[in-house]
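Thread: Trafficking protein particle complex subunit, structure

OP (GT): Posting the sequence first so everyone is looking at the same thing. Length is 183 residues per the record. Can we get the structure tokens written out before standup tomorrow? I want them in the notebook alongside the other entries.
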Amino acid sequence: MAMSRPTNRRPENHKISKELFVLTHGALVAQLCKDHEADEDVNKYLDQMGYNIGIRLVEDFLARSSIKKCRSYNETADIIAKIAFKMYLGITPSVICRKESANEFSLVLDKNPLLDFVEELPVGRASLCFSNLLCGVLRGALEMIHLPADVQFIQDQLKGGNVTEIGITFLRKNDDKKHRRNK
């Protein structure tokens, strides 16, 4: 007897996976806070773990999304927000270009899914970046596609911000002449 997979299971599995990830992330941060007194150490560990996830996750993203090479930083930021965040976290952040140089962007999350079960930072942890894993994931994934970037939080809802804002600064200048030749 052949078993078939119900077609309606994918969205349910995605939601369960997201909730499991969010709960696991909370437990991870709690354990790191127990293991390390300094918030900077916890932030560093979260960033490094995220980086390691990002360098592996980018292959899955490219395979599942069928994205071709981006022609600009603006296009890259849009794909991160509209496809990657939607695919893995079920949200679509807004993209804001922060500088006229077109290499600095912000991803603005009205609702940060990593904070679904968190109301406030632990007592005495004012400089903790609870969601710093996201910065590491973005940095690692971008590095794997040869787009080194500085990624950091600009606003954090756990620290009184109205939104969660992640700043991305691409570290190489966009070579417009190269792109014109390849068109």
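GT: Both are above now. Quick notes for whoever picks this up: The domain at 13-119+127-182 is CATH 3.30.1380.20 (Muramoyl-pentapeptide Carboxypeptidase; domain 2). The radius of gyration is 18 Å.
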